[in-house]
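In the previous lecture we treated proteins in isolation. Real proteins rarely work alone, and many bind small molecules. This record shows how such a complex is specified: first the sequence, then the SMILES for S-adenosylmethionine.
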Amino acid sequence: MNLGYRLAYRLGFTPWENAGRSIFAEQLRHLLDEVAAPGDAAKAKALDLGCGTGDHSIELAIRGWSVTAVDSVPLAIERARAKLPVAGADVTFVLGDVTNLPAYVDHAYTLALDVGCFHGLADEQRIAYGTGLTAVTEPGAVFLMFSFSPGHRGPLPRGASRADVERALDGWTIVGDDAMDTSGAPGILAKAEPRFFRLVRD
Ligand SMILES: C[S@@+](CC[C@H](N)C(=O)[O-])C[C@H]1O[C@@H](n2cnc3c(N)ncnc32)[C@H](O)[C@@H]1O
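The predicted 3D structure, ligand included, written as tokens:
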């Protein structure tokens, strides 16, 4: 299961951790700035779905969220956990499947983040993902999702359209749909026309 990503982490071929990271990190930070900060509710809970080696999870934890982060590749979770002492952050990294979230995480999350996971899933996986996410989040929860636009671009994830997102996230409303600034991005990434969707749970 998830052999492509397992192999990618094993071989150290994880382009999303370098090319994309530096280009989009600033834009992601702005989006996170706009989400209500956890503030006094120091226990406000956030999920990072398909967290990889955890950089975004750690960013959320540093912002004050109580973070649970899920990925299905053992090596990614191992590397994510190893970053915690260095970062001085606390994140619960869970080896699990985002298409069956209630089996791996608790509930009452008010923020969810997905940077590059949903857009690679098959249709039926997306539906299961959406159902699980609804089950573990609170009404009014915010969901930020980075996604390529749909299209076939060799080895890149197939991407997701606004309609694809709406279909899988029944009970959520898209309140933001922002094209990412790809200036300076490698051509293959720019052609994927990445977007950030922002949704709110009804
Ligand atoms: C493009 S990477 C992005 C990783 C991380 N969000 C980042 O930005 O560095 C996509 C991640 O989704 C994970 N993934 C894919 N399908 C998954 C599934 N069904 N359950 C959990 N994680 C999954 C992969 O293992 C991979 O780490």
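Summary for your notes: The chain has a mean pLDDT of 92. The pocket of S-adenosylmethionine is lined by residues 2, 5, 16-17, 50-52, 55-56, 70-73, 76, 97-99, 115-117 (CB under 6 Å).
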